[in-house]
Structure formats: structure tokens, C-alpha cells
């Protein structure tokens, strides 16, 4: 069994502007009922005019550091999962090193895995820590400002996305840990591509994503639990990418599990891509502190099409 992870601090920051469905429908041909019944979303938080991905990431990371109550010098790795940085370089992660006062001897990079990105980044952090002396920590952040890439006249995407960042500080632990990832090449299903004016915008085949998620996510969870020597019913909590409330409900049904094991915060935050899993994890831990020994699944799925999941034991 590969070495596991212990989460010692979490942080979160949503975009500063709360936009309800009613607010959105003043400029979009839709209704609150249409959005809620199809997505489970009631509101989303969008970045203010002066907020950058770097700002949201730094705010979430500072909160995680405060809660972990550790010396910043014990952080030896920083990974930021994002597809929406303000510029092509430098990496958001390198800016965090300076903003947080982590010192110079830190490995820092960004990872663009879209909605699977945070789980990919967390597994990279586990692999890194497994090769380092005990006592070192990693800061893993998911941060997105998707509103910059939304076509606000496209009802199929405009109602879905929000902005935010979530952060974890992790260290090695001698506990259960299993990870699995995959790719089904279908890039056209969810992309950011230039439109006729040259402006890059999100384009999505919603039905293709829905079918993919309902086929792949239950299979991923079954594979993870099989490898861990558990049944899906042996998992106490599922923190999945908050893509769509209906998808999460259907996944629970496919696995014949109670819906209350699947944490849901998409109603207030929308789909925040790489930020959704750490935002949900932070809120879940705050509301319902987990108990040592409980088994937890984190999973992401989306653009690529990609998927990835981790099952670990809370300690």
C-alpha cells in the first residue's frame, strides 16, 4: 500500500460578487426554476473587477496556513491546479511562494487539468512527499476565474460557472491511500476556444458530459473501493467535483448509496472547475468535522475527457 496523506489545513475564497439566478436572468433568457431544476444551482460567486486567480489562490492558501498552524518553511511543494490564470507565465504557484513567504527552496508549478486538475495535483503532491523526509508539507490549491471565459448569451454554460479557490496543506501519513486516473479522448465535449470575434469562450456539449459522468464516475468509485478492499458502502463521505447537482444525485443512485454521503455545495457556488473539490472539502470539514478512520473519496471529472479519484483514510 502506498503512503497516504494527512490534511492538516484547509482554506477557501469565493469570488467577491454573489450573482443569484434572478440576477443572471436579467440578461439571460432563462428563469430561476429552469436553472435550479437542471443544475441544482441557486447562485454563483464571480470575481470582482480587481480580483485575479492569484488573489483568490493566495487568500485560500493563507487561511489554510493559519488553520494548520505550521511554519511556512515546512512547505516544500506548491501546486496550483488552474486553467484560467491571468497570464501565460509565470505560474500562479511561483507567485504564491513569494506572497506567502515560503522561501526559495520550493518546487512550485501549475497544473492544467480543468475539472480533474485538483485531484491530479493532490496525487502529484502525495508522490512528491513519499520521496522526501518526514515533516515536509505540500500546499495544493485549486483556483479558477471562469467568468472571464463565459459567453453570457449562452444559457447552456452561463448558468453553470463560478469563480473561487480552495487550498489544502498535506503531509505524509501511514494510512490507506488509493488513486486512479484516466482519459477518454473527446476534447470537443468541453473546451475554451476562440469564437468568431477571436474571444476565447467556454463551449460545452452538456449531454455528452452528462452521459460521460454517469458512466465513468460510478465505475471510478467502484474501482477505487475494490482496490482498497472495500465496498462503496464502506466509504463515509464522497467529495466530488461539483459539476451539476443532478449528476451527483444520479451517481448516488447508481451506487445505491444515500445522497447525504455526497457533499453538495454547488447550490451557492456553481461549478468552479479545479476549485470545486477543495472548496467543497473545506466547507464539509467546517460543517461536519470528520472522525479519524473514516474513508473519504475525492473525485474529479471533465474536460479531456478525464477523470480521477482518490480514496484515503482520515487521520
From TrEMBL:
Domain (Beta-ketoacyl-[acyl-carrier-protein] synthase III C-terminal) ranges: 226-314
Protein name: Beta-ketoacyl-ACP synthase 3
EC number assigned by the record: 2.3.1.180
Residue stretches making up the Beta-ketoacyl-[acyl-carrier-protein] synthase III N-terminal domain: 109-173
Matches recorded under NCBIfam families: PRK09352.1 (NF006829)
CDD domains reported in the protein's UniProt record: KAS_III (cd00830)
Domain of life: Bacteria
Transferase as UniProt keyword: yes
Keyword set, alphabetical order: Acyltransferase, Fatty acid biosynthesis, Fatty acid metabolism, Lipid biosynthesis, Lipid metabolism, Multifunctional enzyme, Transferase
Pathway info: Lipid metabolism
Classification via InterPro entries: ACP_syn_III_C (IPR013747), ACP_syn_III_N (IPR013751), Thiolase-like (IPR016039)
GO molecular function, one term: beta-ketoacyl-acyl-carrier-protein synthase III activity
Keyword Lipid metabolism in annotation: yes
Homology family: Belongs to the thiolase-like superfamily. FabH family.
SUPFAM superfamilies the UniProt entry points to: Thiolase-like
Amino acid at each position: 500500500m502506498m503512503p497516504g496523506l494527512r490534511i492538516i489545513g484547509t482554506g477557501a475564497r469565493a469570488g467577491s460578487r454573489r450573482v443569484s439566478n434572478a440576477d443572471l436572468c436579467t440578461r439571460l433568457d432563462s428563469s430561476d426554476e429552469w436553472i435550479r431544476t437542471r443544475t441544482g444551482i441557486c447562485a454563483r460567486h464571480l470575481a470582482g473587477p480587481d480580483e485575479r486567480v492569484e488573489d483568490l489562490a493566495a487568500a485560500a492558501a493563507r487561511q489554510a496556513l493559519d488553520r494548520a498552524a505550521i511554519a511556512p518553511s515546512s512547505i516544500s511543494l506548491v501546486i496550483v491546479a488552474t486553467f484560467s490564470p491571468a497570464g501565460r507565465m509565470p505560474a500562479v504557484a511561483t507567485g504564491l511562494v513569494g506572497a506567502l513567504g515560503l522561501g526559495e527552496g520550493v518546487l512550485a508549478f501549475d497544473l492544467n487539468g480543468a475539472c480533474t486538475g485538483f485531484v491530479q495535483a493532490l496525487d502529484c503532491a502525495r508522490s512528491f512527499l513519499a520521496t522526501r523526509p518526514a515533516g515536509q508539507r505540500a500546499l495544493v490549491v485549486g483556483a479558477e476565474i471562469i467568468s472571464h471565459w463565459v459567453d453570457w448569451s449562452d444559457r447552456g454554460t452561463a448558468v453553470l460557472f463560478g469563480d473561487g479557490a480552495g487550498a489544502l496543506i498535506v503531509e505524509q501519513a501511514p494510512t490507506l491511500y488509493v488513486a486512479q486516473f484516466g482519459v477518454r479522448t473527446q476534447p470537443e465535449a468541453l473546451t475554451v476556444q476562440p469564437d468568431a470575434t477571436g474571444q476565447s469562450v467556454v463551449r460545452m456539449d452538456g449531454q455528452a458530459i452528462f452521459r460521460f459522468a454517469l458512466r465513468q464516475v460510478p465505475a471510478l468509485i467502484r474501482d477505487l473501493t475494490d482496490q482498497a478492499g472495500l465496498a462503496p458502502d464502506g466509504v463515509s463521505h464522497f467529495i466530488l467535483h461539483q459539476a451539476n447537482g443532478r449528476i451527483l444525485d444520479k451517481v448516488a443512485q447508481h451506487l445505491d448509496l444515500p445522497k447525504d454521503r455526497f457533499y453538495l455545495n454547488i447550490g451557492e457556488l456553481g461549478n468552479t472547475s479545479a476549485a470545486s473539490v477543495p472548496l467543497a472539502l473545506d466547507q464539509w470539514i467546517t460543517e461536519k468535522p470528520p472522525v479519524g478512520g473514516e474513508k473519504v473519496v475525492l473525485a474529479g471529472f471533465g474536460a479531456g475527457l478525464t477523470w480521477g479519484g482518490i480514496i484515503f483514510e482520515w487521520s
